[in-house]
Amino acid sequence: MTNTADYEYDRNAIIAAHPLLEYCHGIGLEMRRAGREWKCLCPLHDEQTPSFSVDTEKDLFCCHGCGVGGTVIDLHAKLHGLSIGEAMRDLSPSRGNGKGDGAKEVRSKLDSATSRNGNTPPPVEIAAYDYQDATGRVRFQVVRYAPKDFRQCRIDERGTRIWNMDGVERLPYRLPEVLAADTAEVWIVEGEKDVEALREIKGTVATCNPGGAGKWLPAFSQHLRGKGVLLIPDRDGPGAKHAAIVLASLAGLVKWVKWIELPPEHKGRAVKDVSDLCTACASLDDFAATLELLKAKARLIERGIDSDAYTMAELEAQYIAEKTIFGDVSLDLNRWLPSLCLRSLGPGDLMGVMANTGQCKTACIQNILACNAALPGILFELELSGPQMFERAAAIATGYNAWRISQFYDEGDRVDWWTSSKFANLLTCTATLSMPEIDERIGRASAKLGCTPRVFVIDYAQLVRGAGSRYERMSATCEESKRLAKKWNAVGIIVSQVARPDDDGDNQVGIYDAKESGSFENSCGLVLGVWKTSKTDMVCRVLKNTRGYAGKEVAMCLRDNTYIIEPVAT
After folding, report:
1. What are 269-308's pLDDT values in tens digits?
2. Same domain (yes/no): 345, 459
């Protein structure tokens, strides 16, 4: 039996685990054979004549009515308003029951399509929650349906709903009120219905994130800087985990956090969330008084920073929580070079890559990221320009050499860099930044990626801006990179040039060769050295490995100016 963990985020494995026709049947589409294809009414737009078709030989779909097509990943992303990376994580065979969360049920548009086929009644919209930017403009909505279901849509300049979230910055609910609260108290709850229940009390400011439990982004916390926060978890496992994520994100930003525990029942009625508590109260005054009593019992957490001295039992709880909450943070170097036989890197790990000038260190980084394409990441490229980075990434994604890619664009054409999805979840920043600025960019990246970056790369460390001598700047960069990996629960990668001059005739790299500082090898748990032995032949050596053995060497080759670096076949 195949171990699904081995291909959790492998695009081909996900597609293989979800045959498109089977997926369509599973979500309720009435597929009818038409030659070698299967057809039905399109779940993505309203129509009377079937224009949605599935080619079972190619395992691809196409709608001739709305012009959308692709793999099961693309269909799942469109149906649920997800990015490609989010859809891949959702469909990962190792999540949930092995079929991915996307096979659970059909969203509201899909319900409408199946209701036309006579299978299910259409859902009824019961609420639409406006998410506004700082100026008060509605950017997107969360729409609630009965039977209970939620969908997100963006709002265009004419106020029209568009049923996807493409290009929309995620924002916290009731943002203008949060910003206007100055340093006053702000309540954070799990859902929009809970926010509205609290807002019934005059002067109360409350917020939540779109998408429910587990979807809080670090970018939301920036809007709460300097405020007091009243955090109320729902009374269930996901609610507690969600509140823990929020608390960790607020640490050091807010004035204080009060962790408020809801009672299991109030006046004989069960209480799961704030809305239940509001319903159980006899009046609005009773609700307000009950909340004040809960505030008085709340655990105060100064500056949102919880105690940092733990017993073994507490450390075990953190370990379990990390495995549960951040289990999707796993960078596997063996996907790039299988014979390295290294353990996967997880949240808080810092890896270093050392190479001399002109030894393809940036290309190595891009290949590592391409082989871990489902991990949302941000690459701080401090040496090369954006166009240079695009050309290299496009070469890796398509297999064309750089000259051919340039020729395509000179002729007014494009190359298909997107189908492989190798860089679909990667942001590239080419500005020259300091470490505090890098920290801030990592936090802001979540608004574009839809989640916290799971990996960040600094290429290369000597170019990071900072005060002091070159030695002091390098030391500070390495130490701060290690701190950021832990802060953001991400895998960190820093790249360093070597100290020797370029013309000494020997490109081999040793553990103590990092330019300007010994902090590089001290800060990193894993260090790789890379060098060329000829124009196309290369070597990768494990210089340090705190979770295994060092010294392993792997022969690599650079494939014909494509920037694809792959192991030499044995």
Report:
1. 888 999 999 988 989 999 999 999 888 888 888 888 876 6
2. yes
Residues 292 and 366 in one domain: no
Cα(373)–Cα(371) distance, integer angstroms: 6
Q: Would residue 544 count as lying in a domain?
A: yes
Where are the strands (E) in 432-564, listed by range? 455-459, 491-497, 526-532, 537-545, 553-558
Residue-level pLDDT at 322: 61
Closest CA to 215 of 553, 450, 419: 450
Q: Are residues 295 and 203 in the same domain?
A: yes
Q: What is the band of 177 on the pLDDT scale with cuts at 50, 70, 90?
A: very high
Tokens of 542: 């494990």
Q: Do 447 and 347 share a structural domain?
A: yes
| Tens of pLDDT, residues 427-437 | 999 999 999 99
Is 7's pLDDT higher than 80? no
Domains contained in the chain, number: 3
Domain of 379, CATH number, reads 3.40.50.300
Flag whether 67 is in a domain. yes
Enter the tokens of residue 270. 């069960």
Tell me how long the chain is.
570
Instruction: Give burial (CB, 10 Å; 0-12/13-18/19+) of 305.
Output: middle
- Integer-rounded Cα radius of gyration of the chain: 26
Category of 211 on φ-ψ map: left (φ > 0), alpha (ψ -120 to 50) or beta: left
Report residue 6 as tokens.
């081995």
Give the residue numbers spanning the domain of 251. 170-302
190 and 106 housed in the same domain? no
- Helices 386-398 and 361-370: angle between axes, nearest 10 degrees: 50
Residue 3 reports pLDDT greater than 70: no
How far, in Å, CA of 448 to CA of 427, rounded?
9
Q: What angle do CA 284, 287, 289 make, to 5 degrees?
A: 110
Specify whether 210 is located in the same domain as 62. no
Domain identity same for 338 and 298: no
